[in-house]
Design brief:
With 267 residues, the protein is of the alpha+beta class. The protein has 3 domains: 33 residues, no CATH class; 105 residues, 2-Layer Sandwich (Alpha-Beta Plaits); 107 residues, Alpha-Beta Plaits. Helix content is 21%, strand content 31%. The protein contains 6 helices and 13 strands. The strands form 3 sheets. Strands 4, 5, 6, 7, 8, 11, 12 and 13 form an 8-stranded mixed sheet that branches. Helix 3 packs across helix 4. The longest helix has 15 residues.
């Protein structure tokens, strides 16, 4: 909705009182500018914002960016590209931008999802053209190592929850031996795999966790181990835990671990 501040009931666009509505907050609302098309009604929220879904790749040295650092890269890129990110209310407003599934540090990814809540006036919004404009302007502001795949507008009220993720572990050829194949069979045949997990990065406390339920499948193709993991509200298995379960060392990897795909549930 487009709302213009009113002063003493003065309409800066028209003196015709039929063209304006004075609301209880002393602001003037222009009905003609506030009408939404049927397509816009499905994507614009009650707070006159839209949800942008940005899919991208990340690799090279930028794979070492943390979750918070990745978000800051996009916040700065949006500012330079003129993308008006909506902020939370209150004394300490924060930009409404998120990565629903954090990427492990050091892992490359072919399928990252970024959600950005953007303030966008209905009369400025033509979905297809707007998506192309944001993709073009945002791509120009991202550093090397990021590749923007797509920008789309989600339906109003949509949220995204990850259900599974696929990781590829490229191995040195000499490390693909019969003992690895036997270990994979043993893991898949197990009903329970209990590991000790630290409760925090600086914590000395550990908790015992059964990670077997997070392992959906493990396959060995050529020199790569492909692990499909379940993701639930309780969490998922960590990359370092996958290596631990498979009894693999970092030195056995021929290239960085890569997250190739994520499956999402939307509601």
């Amino acid at each position: 909705m487009l709302v213009f501040p009113g002063k003493d009931g003065h309409n800066p666009i028209s003196e015709n009182t039929e063209d304006r509505i004075q609301n209880t907050e002393g602001r003037i609302v222009y009905p003609d500018l506030c009408r939404l098309s049927s397509a816009q009604e499905h994507i614009i929220g009650l707070d006159d914002s839209i949800l942008l879904l940005v899919r991208f790749k990340i690799g090279g040295r930028l794979r070492f960016l943390s979750h918070a650092e990745t978000l800051r890269v996009f916040q700065r890129a949006c500012a330079r590209a003129g993308v008006n990110i909506q902020h939370t209310q209150g004394f300490n407003p924060h930009p409404r931008i998120s990565l629903p599934l954090p990427r492990p540090v050091g892992v490359e990814s072919d399928d990252e999802l970024l959600c950005i809540r953007v303030v966008c006036a209905p009369n400025e919004l033509e979905a297809a053209a707007y998506e192309m404009q944001i993709r073009s302007s945002l791509s120009e502001q991202l550093p090397e190592g990021f590749e923007l795949l797509s920008v789309s507008i989600a339906k109003a009220g949509t949220s995204f929850v990850p259900s599974s993720a696929t990781y590829v572990l490229p191995l040195r050829r000499q490390c693909v031996a019969e003992d690895l194949k036997a270990r994979i069979k043993q893991v898949l045949a197990s009903e329970s795999i209990r590991l000790e997990r630290k409760t925090g990065p600086e914590s000395l406390k550990f908790k015992t966790l059964d990670v077997r339920g997070f392992l959906k499948s493990i396959e060995l193709e050529d020199s790569c181990v492909i692990v499909r993991c379940n993701v639930s509200p309780a969490g998922s298995i960590r990359v370092e835990e996958i290596l631990q379960v498979l009894e693999l060392d970092i030195e056995k990897l021929a290239a960085p671990i890569r997250r190739t795909s994520v499956q999402w549930n939307s509601n």
